[in-house]
Every structure is written in C-alpha cells, then in structure tokens.
User: What shape does this take?
Amino acid sequence: MLTIQHKDTDTRARTGIMHLPHGDVEVPAFMPVGTNGTVKAIKHRDVDEMGYTLILGNTYHLYLRPGMEVIKQSGGLHEFSSWKHNILTDSGGFQVFSLATFRKIKEEGVRFRSHIDGAYHVFTPESVVEIQEAFGSDIQMALDVCTPPDISHKDALEALRITTNWAKRARKRWDERKEGYEGKLFGIIQGNFYEDLRKRSAEEILELDTPGIAIGGLSVGEPPEMFRDYLHYTAQFLPEEKPRYVMGIGTPDYMLEAVEAGIDMFDCVYPTRIARNGTCFTQEGLIALKNEKFRLDTTPIDPSCDCEVCRNYSRSYLRHLFKAKEILGPMLVTQHNLHFLYRFMEEVRASIRENRFRAYKQDFLKRYGKGL
RNA sequence: GGGGAGGUUCCCGAGUGGUCAAAGGGGGCAGACUGUAAAUCUGUUGCUUCGGCUUCGAAGGUUCAAAUCCUUCUCUCCCCA
Assistant: This one.
C-alpha cells in the first residue's frame, strides 16, 4: 500500500505515496483530527481544498454518538460526513487511556463509561474492528492499551501483553472482513518508556504483518528528550515497505523529529485546538492572537503565508474576533493552522526529495525557535 | 410635594462593627493546550522602597476598631400626587 518515492541520503526520512481506498496520500503527511466526524470549526470542503486527503475520526466518540445505526444508515462515515477522501479511525484505545477513571481493562476487552451519559460499554479488539469496518474506515487502528510515562516495568509489560493479544485478535477479525471492504489495519506498538518492551512490542506487532504500523504511547506527557529517544529507538525496528505512523504529535518540531526517524504519518488535535484558543503557527513560532500587543497590528498572522486568512485578515481584526468571542475567530485560525501545516509538509517532502532535509529542519527550527 | 429603595474596588454585585484590599460573576492581562468529555482550562487583576499606604458617593461624628453605627449634604431609581 506504500510506494516509496525517495529516501533521504543522510537521515531515515523518505517520501512516498500511500494507496488507500479513497485515493492516494502523499507522505510524510499530517492528518487533521476530526473526532466527531468533523474537523472542528472548519468545513470538510475547506480541508479538502487545502490539499488534505486523509483525516481522522474516532471510534469511541462516533460509536457513542451518533451511534452505529445512524452511520450505517448513511452508508458509512464518508457519506455521513460528506468527506470524499480517506479516513483513519482511532480505535478508542487512547480514550480508554485518557478516561482512566472509568476504565476496566480485562483480557477480553475494556469496559468503560460513556462520558455522555455514564452508560457502561465494552470494546473488544474484535468489536472495534467491526465498528470501524461499518464506518468504512480506510485505515483502522487495532485496540491497544496506552499507558502514562510513570508506570513500572511490570505494569508496562502487562499493558504490552494485552496490546499484543488484542492486536492478534484484531488482525484475525480483520482477516474476516467482508468482501468489498478495502480498509487497512494498523497495529500499534506500545511498551511505555522501556527499551526492552518497545523492542519486544515492535517484534510482536511486526509479526502480525498488518498493512501499516503505528507507534503509540508517545507524547503522553513525557519530556521532549524522552519522546525523541523513544521515537528513534522504536522507529529503527520498523520495516521499510510499510507506512509508519506516530500517533498524537502535531507541533512542527516533533514532526520534523519524526520525519527524520522515518515516520510517514502523524495526527494531532494540537493545531486545531490551539487555533480555537487563539494561537497560530507562524514561521517565527507560535503567536497568541489575544495578546494586547496585536491590538493595532494590521499585518497578517504570518506575512509569508498565502492562505485565504493571511491574504484577507489582520492580526488586529482576528484579535478582535477572539476578544469578542466571535465564532469566525476559531474558524479562521483553524484554517490558517491547517494550511500552514499542509504547506509545511509540502516543504518537508520537497526537502527530502532534494536530499536537504537536515538543512531544512535546521533552518526551520532556527526561525521557529524550538527543537528537541 | 409625599412615600420608598439605593450609591462598594474597570463593570455588575455580595458584604450591615474587628477574621475586609473587601465573596462571586464579567471585563482586562498573562500562561497552558500534542491518537479532542476542550470555541477549553489555569493564574492574575488598588499602590508599594513590601514596612506599610490609600480605597466602599461627600463631609463630619461615635468607637480601641467603620464599607458596615449616627448627622448633614449630594446623586440615582421606583411608587403616589
């Protein structure tokens, strides 16, 4: 499902085309998150026009609301939400992790309470594959056990053991998918922040030979150096020919690090969330539009950006929208941030093709002002 | 003209003798946000040489002590004429 186009000469970075049921995706790629079947504060059509061909949806959320009946009735998530390109759905493993107060993990599956009405539900690796198949997901994720950075080796091992078993069962259930469903299954590597467990998880997940591989359990609150170290450590075990996905990262510095480690895909709520809270990406780093210093600033968010927002609106006006709590503020900044990241990934891909990724990374971070 | 209610820190609004520089909202300012229970959350918001100083419509008074009690003045709102 992946055609590698170019490998960087001095890092593990590569470019390629990922072939999916709803069209090709150029990688490395950032995937906007649309948890509830919508990338928040922006129309799918606008996301499409920016160039994105793969976005996320969330099994946990969509299963609870609107529920399977509604999505099946529309013929799947694409039709339901009017998105013609690819959708990757997360398995709910992370929600189980982030809603830890309600979870109960057993061998069979995970029991949890709905954040909407408190009702009890159970996810099993099999049921989650079935749900995602019903959604018509182009990429579906195996149910996993995500853990925080401060747990013991023993606990991490147990989480890993369950993750592997669940992945096996997911793989088996996915093999039994109905004819005509072309969605791909990705296994997820866990192992917390223990090298032996990361290695073991990688081996066990690779053994299952899923179409793509994800690295999970990173960017869960650990320090940046720890993220970087475990990212590179884990990435070295990943096979060349398969798409590699690091889950949950979305700042330019983390993405550059991941690309350098040979990662092809990442997703994150960060760009769209900070947008709704008034923070924008620029070539010179983040700016918080609500700050007083932008009150009379008639320049665009990022003078070097060619997006519709930067071509038409000033920081002063956007600041006003946020101060006045006008809904257009979050909408416009979401549009800018997603455009910014799309352009960013285009530049990253170009730099890889021209064997100058490392220089690009350095230049970018010099301007942007961060780095791991 | 008569009767009633009230003026609190940028705004609204608690507070009726000390534990009050004064609750709580709002607004302002700043920070956070990384497989979305997030158009959310957190901090801060009289001055200060950090010992204090100045604030609760104004002036005066009672008291060891007043935003809180008394007197006068002033302004606002409501009802009746």
